[in-house]
């Protein structure tokens, strides 16, 4: 009689139960700092004297550069000098023409032109 080779089938391996990863403690946060306000740049806050042409629009008292721009925008809005088609352009009236040097300027160009009138 011929012997049959009997091979045992390997039992299917069971996946090892996954261990839950150990939870790491959240790093302790430092005590919250007091909410400090941003400090303004001293160069922007220095009072500057406007030229005679600029003083006709914003006043003759020395004021910081930031306030000059605010007052100019208030004047532009009050007199409706912003271009209706392209809102980035400002149409100069009789008081603004000596400052700008031309009839229409962009809002980005405006601050550059105004800085020439501040000392």
Concise description?
The chain is of the alpha+beta class and 119 residues long.
3D structure, described in words:
By secondary structure, this protein is α+β, with helices and mostly antiparallel strands. The protein has a domain at about 45-115: MDM2, CATH 1.10.245. It has helices at about 40-45, 50-60, 65-80, 95-100, 105-115, and strands at about 45-50, 65, 90, 105.
Shape annotation = elongated
The computed structural class is alpha+beta
Summed over residues and divided by their number, the pLDDT gives a mean of 85
Count every helix, treating DSSP H or I runs of 4 or more residues as helices: 5
Helix content: 25-40%
The CATH fourth-level homologous superfamily of the domain at 44-115: SWIB/MDM2 domain
Q: What is the terminal separation in angstroms?
A: 118 Å
Order of helices and strands: HEHEHEHEH
Name the poorly predicted regions: none
Strand order of the largest sheet: 1-2
Residue share in β-strands: 5-15%
Strand count, sense and closure of the main sheet?
2 strands, antiparallel
CATH class label of the domain at 44-115:
Mainly Alpha
The CATH topology of the domain at 44-115 is what?
MDM2
Count of DSSP strands: 4
CATH architectural type of the domain at 44-115: Orthogonal Bundle
Radius of gyration, taken over Cα atoms and rounded to an integer in Å: 37 Å
């Amino acid at each position: 009689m011929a012997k049959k080779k009997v091979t045992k089938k390997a039992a299917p391996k069971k996946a090892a139960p996954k261990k839950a990863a150990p939870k790491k403690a959240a790093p302790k946060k430092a005590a919250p700092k007091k909410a400090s306000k941003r400090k303004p740049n001293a160069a922007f806050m220095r009072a500057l004297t406007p030229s005679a042409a600029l003083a006709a629009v914003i006043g003759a008292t020395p004021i910081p550069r930031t306030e000059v721009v605010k007052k100019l925008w208030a004047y532009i809005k009050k007199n409706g000098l912003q271009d209706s088609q392209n809102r980035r352009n400002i149409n100069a009236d009789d008081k603004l023409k000596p400052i700008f040097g031309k009839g229409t300027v962009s809002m980005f160009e405006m601050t550059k032109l105004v800085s020439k009138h501040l000392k």
